[in-house]
Specification:
Helices cover 47% and strands 21% of the residues. By secondary structure, it is an alpha+beta fold. Strand 3 and strand 4 form a beta hairpin. Helix 2 runs antiparallel to helix 3, helix 2 packs antiparallel against helix 4 and helix 6 packs antiparallel against helix 8.
């Protein structure tokens, strides 16, 4: 059964809300274009007329343009949250019976809190103080030590970034830390692979170095075109992908009752459920 057939009643109600959001986005786009053009004309006029007052007006209009476009980006966020709660999570489990998209727990245990911070620092480059769990991917045969998380940096209505992170947790007494990050320079082809022990940089340790680099390349091949980071520490091993867009995004510019609007969801699901990265992560130790 298609998503439209299965959730038709809910989608019809959400479609009215989507139309309102779409109209508001068009209005904000018009205002952004208008203030942008006025800012440009004012800037030109300030140069020709050598008027400081007009230059100030041009700067003010440019600021307004930025604020309008930023506000426009947030218009659909509340709608996306409601759509995920009413449709996406239920559709995902019905479509993939052994997998679940779950909201974060109301109370985060200390172990999960530590794992979350490690994942952020090692594999996402997000701000730990501003990053939270947006979704947690669960499987019927998951172990407690394996986590798949979608992390959001910033408030729910103004997200700054999202990242998908795979975590294999453990507790080890040694102070060995390693990371595989994108090349530091654009001219470099190999990733930046470094090892540290008790805070001091040390030489690469095999076979761990090869395994971490292979994990990095595998994640990069699976999520082509997106930034990948791999980290290793006494708390576990972590692989993260910086997402360029929301997974399973509800359509804003197409009708919710149009099956074609959900075509990207198949690709999102195939990437999210690909077990190759999880298997490679589990094989490291």
């Amino acid at each position: 059964m298609s998503i439209v057939e299965r959730f038709k009643n809910r989608l019809e109600g959400l479609e009215l809300e989507r139309l309102k959001v779409a109209r508001d986005r068009q209005t904000y786009r018009f205002l952004g274009c208008l203030t942008g053009v006025l800012s440009l004309l004012s800037f030109v006029a300030s140069i020709v007329g050598q008027s400081a007052l007009v230059a100030v007006m041009a700067a003010f209009l440019a600021l307004c343009t930025g604020l309008v476009w930023r506000a426009r980006k947030t218009l659909g966020e509340a709608f996306q949250v409601r759509f995920r709660e009413q449709v996406t999570r239920e559709w995902f489990h019905e479509r993939f019976r052994s997998a679940y998209l779950n909201p974060p727990p109301d109370v985060i245990s200390e172990e999960l809190r530590v794992a979350l911070r490690e994942a952020i620092v090692r594999s996402t480059a997000q701000n730990p103080k501003k990053t939270v769990i947006e979704e947690r991917l669960l499987f019927d045969r998951d172990s407690y030590s394996s986590l798949v998380l979608i992390l959001r940096e910033g408030p729910v209505l103004k997200p700054r970034s999202r990242a998908l992170v795979w975590c294999k947790l453990r507790t080890d007494e040694n102070g060995l830390v390693a990371f595989v990050w994108p090349p530091a320079l654009a001219t470099q082809k190999k990733p930046d692979l470094r090892f540290f022990e008790n805070g001091k940089r040390v030489g690469l340790k095999e076979p761990l170095a090869t395994k971490l680099e292979s994990l990095y390349e595998l994640a990069r091949a699976t999520w082509a075109g997106q930034t990948v980071r791999v980290g290793y520490s006494p708390r576990g091993v972590f692989a993260g992908v910086r997402l360029t867009r929301r997974l399973f995004e509800a359509p804003l510019d197409q009708s919710l009752l149009d099956e074609a609007a959900y075509e990207p969801w198949s690709k999102d699901a195939s990437h999210l459920l690909d077990s190759s990265v999880r298997d490679a992560l589990n094989s490291i130790f």
